[in-house]
Design brief:
- The protein contains 4 helices and no strands.
- The protein is an all-alpha fold and about 120 residues long.
- α2 packs antiparallel against α3.
- It starts with a helix and ends in a 5-residue tail after the last helix.
Length: about 120
Amino acid sequence: MKQTMRCENLRIRYLEKENKVWQHYLVQILQSLLRFHRGFLKENPKGVGSMCKAMEELRVESYAEGKAEGVEIGKMEQAKKTALRLSRKGNSVEEIADLLGYDVDTVSSWIAPKAC
């Protein structure tokens, strides 16, 4: 029984060591591929062009996402102001929520007086 456990432990250690060796080789291969690709993107005219195109696409996409997020924030801020005005005029929270298209809990949190 002890002999079997010892053999199993040795086998596990061998496999762990073997795994580390293969991981080392994989890391080296990936690093050389990245060096080659980076060189292609920096030095080759096609690579520079494709990198510029990718950066422009990223810029346009980021701008669109930021704009959409800003519009959503603006809509919510306007809804909050409208909810406060309607509340001051005597409308119920349910009516305001229905008019603005938000749920009652959200509208009531906007209208509720804030504690300092």
